[in-house]
Design brief:
Blueprint lengths: L20 H8 L2 E5 L10 E2 L2 E2 L15 H5 L12 H11 L3 E7 L26 H10 L3 E7 L15 H24 L5 E5 L4 H4 L2 H14 L4 E2 L24 E5 L14 E5 L19 H13 L2 E7 L9 H17 L6 E2 L9 E6 L4 E6 L7 E5 L4 E8 L6 E2 L2 E4 L2 E5 L9 E9 L2
Parallel strand pairs: 1-4, 1-10, 4-5, 5-6, 6-7, 8-9, 9-10
Antiparallel strand pairs: 2-3, 11-12, 12-13, 13-19, 14-18, 15-16, 15-19, 17-18
Helix pairs in contact: 3-4, 3-9, 5-7, 8-9
Length: 442
C-alpha cells in the first residue's frame, strides 16, 4: 500500500543519489580519516587525577569540571610539534581519499581564527590557524577535506538546549546568526574544502529551526557549488531528522552510521552513507587511557570491506595528542592499513555493491563500470573452497590473485552459475583479495 506523501516545505529537496562529479568522487573514496582535535586533548580523559569514563571530548560536561576552568585550557593549547604535512603524509600512506576535521567540537573552541568569538586558536599560545595548513597539506596530496562543525556550542552563552521563554528565543536568534557567520566564514576561508560534516544537531532548540537551517543550507550550497552536506544538519518542520516526514533523506549522504555498519544493502535504502569508527570504545578525542577492546588492523580492514561492499565509505578516527603528534597505536594502524591498501586498494576505490548473495568467506565489491568483482576474503573455510553464486546467465571468465603471487584459478562449476574456487593454499595470515572477471553467458 502506498504511503501518503505530505507536502513539506523543509523536507528533502531531492530524492535519490546526487549524480554530479563532486558526489561521484565522494562515492568512490572508500576509505577516509576522521580527526578529533581540540582543547579536550589536554586533559585527555583525566581531571585532577580522576579518570573520566565517557568520551574524552565530552569531559567539559563532567560535573567535576568547571566550565571556566575548562575554557582556560585555551591558554595551554600550544601544539609545538604539530605538522600538518606529516599528518597528511600519514593519511596518504594509509590510503585515505578524504579527511573530516573538527573545526569546532561541542566545547566551542575553534581551530581556526574565527572573528566571531575569542575562543579560538588565535588566542592560545600557539596563535596560528590549524585548519588552513591542514586543508592545504591534505588537498595537495589529493585527499579531499570535509570540515566537521558542531552546532551545539557549550561556550557560547546564547546556546540553548530548548527554547522555552522569550529570552531563550532572543538569545537563540543571536546564536543562529553566529552559526551562520561561522559557517560562511569557514567556506570563505577554505575554498578547497569539499563539504561540511555536522554534529551536535539533536537538541530541540536546533530541531525547531527547520526554516532557518533550510535557508542556510541553500545559501551555503549556492556559495559553493558541489558542496557536500550530510543528513545531520537539519530537521524538517515536523522535527524529523536525517529522513523527513515522507521518509526521504535530507542531505547528500546518510550520517547515521556512527560506530556501526549496516548488515545488508536494504538497510541503506539506496542512499550514500559513511561509517565513522573509533579504534577503541567510544573515544574520539585523545584519551590517555584506551579502555575496552582495541581494534586491530585486520578488524578495521574487514569493516572497510564490509562498508564498501554495501555502497558506503569507512572513516577511521584519529585523536591527536596535545603536542600535535599522533599516538603510536594510531600511527601503527595507519601503517598496517596502508600496507594492505598498497596491494589491494584496487578493490576499495570506486567499489560498489556487487548485487551478489553474501558468502561466509567475506565480501564482494564490484568495480564501478567494469566486469570485475573483487572477493575480499577474511574467513577461509577448512575445505579451502570459496563458494560463489552468480546471477543466472553470468559466468566466470577469469579468477586471479590481486597483487598476490600472480596465481590464477580454474573455478569448478558445481551448479548453475554456482562455483567453488579452490584455493591453492589453506593457511592465510592476512585478508586477501581475488579478482573475478565475469562474462555474459546468455
Ligand atoms: O558527541 C559527538 C562525539 O563526541 C563525536 O564527535 C561523534 C563523531 O561522530 N559525534 C557525536 C556523537 O554523535
Amino acid at each position: 500500500t502506498a504511503q501518503k506523501t505530505i507536502a513539506l516545505q523543509h523536507g528533502a529537496h531531492g530524492v535519490g543519489r546526487r549524480r554530479d562529479a563532486a558526489m561521484e568522487k565522494w562515492r568512490a573514496y572508500g576509505l577516509g580519516q576522521f580527526v578529533h582535535w581540540g582543547l579536550y586533548s589536554i586533559p585527555a580523559g583525566e581531571w585532577n587525577g580522576k579518570q573520566y569514563n565517557g568520551a574524552a571530548e565530552w569531559i567539559k560536561s563532567w560535573k567535576e569540571v568547571p566550565a571556566t576552568t575548562y575554557d582556560s585550557l585555551m591558554y595551554q593549547f600550544n601544539p609545538t610539534k604539530f605538522n600538518a604535512e606529516s599528518w597528511a603524509a600519514t593519511a596518504k600512506q594509509m590510503g585515505v581519499k578524504y579527511v573530516t576535521i573538527t573545526t569546532k567540537h561541542h566545547d566551542g573552541f575553534c581551530l581556526w581564527p574565527s572573528k566571531y568569538t575569542n575562543f579560538t586558536v588565535a588566542n592560545s599560545p600557539y596563535k596560528k590557524d590549524i585548519i588552513g595548513p591542514l586543508v592545504k597539506a591534505y588537498d595537495r596530496r589529493g585527499i579531499d577535506v570535509i570540515l566537521y562543525f558542531s552546532i551545539m556550542d557549550w561556550h557560547n552563552p546564547d546556546w540553548r538546549y530548548d527554547i522555552k521563554t522569550r529570552e531563550d528565543s532572543v538569545a537563540f536568534d543571536r546564536f543562529k546568526q553566529f552559526t551562520r557567520n561561522q559557517l560562511l566564514e569557514l567556506l570563505t576561508l577554505y575554498p578547497a574544502a569539499k563539504g561540511l560534516w555536522f554534529d551536535g544537531t539533536w537538541d530541540k532548540s536546533w530541531v525547531k529551526q527547520a526554516a532557518f537551517a533550510d535557508s542556510l543550507e541553500k545559501e551555503m550550497r549556492a556559495m559553493r557549488p558541489g558542496l557536500i552536506i550530510g543528513s545531520r544538519f537539519r530537521a524538517d518542520e515536523y522535527g524529523k531528522r536525517h529522513f523527513d516526514s515522507n521518509g526521504n533523506m535530507m542531505g547528500d549522504y546518510e550520517q547515521g552510521w556512527e560506530r556501526k555498519i549496516p548488515e545488508k544493502i536494504t538497510d541503506v535504502h539506496g542512499n550514500d552513507w559513511d561509517c565513522v569508527m573509533t579504534v577503541p570504545e567510544n573515544q574520539w578525542g585523545y584519551s590517555k587511557i584506551w579502555k575496552g577492546h582495541i581494534k586491530t588492523t585486520d578488524e578495521l580492514l574487514e569493516m572497510l570491506a564490509k562498508c564498501v561492499s554495501l555502497d558506503g565509505n569507512f572513516v577511521l578516527n584519529f585523536g591527536p595528542k596535545p603536542d600535535g603528534t599522533l599516538r603510536t597505536e594510531e600511527l601503527d594502524l595507519a601503517k598496517g592499513i596502508g600496507a594492505w591498501m598498497d596491494t589491494n586498494s584496487e578493490a576499495i576505490y570506486n567499489g560498489e555493491y556487487a548485487g551478489l548473495v553474501k558468502q561466509d568467506w567475506g565480501y564482494y565489491v564490484k568495480k564501478t563500470g567494469t566486469n570485475k568483482i573483487y572477493m575480499l576474503v577474511f574467513n577461509v573455510p577448512v575445505s579451502g573452497a570459496l563458494n560463489v553464486v552468480l546471477p543466472s546467465r553470468t559466468a566466470i571468465s577469469k579468477v586471479y590473485d590481486l597483487g598476490g603471487p600472480g596465481l590464477s584459478y580454474v573455478p569448478e562449476e558445481i551448479g548453475t552459475s554456482t562455483y567453488f574456487i579452490h584455493l591453492k593454499q589453506q593457511t592465510f595470515k592476512r585478508p586477501f583479495v581475488l579478482v573475478l572477471e565475469t562474462a555474459d553467458n546468455s
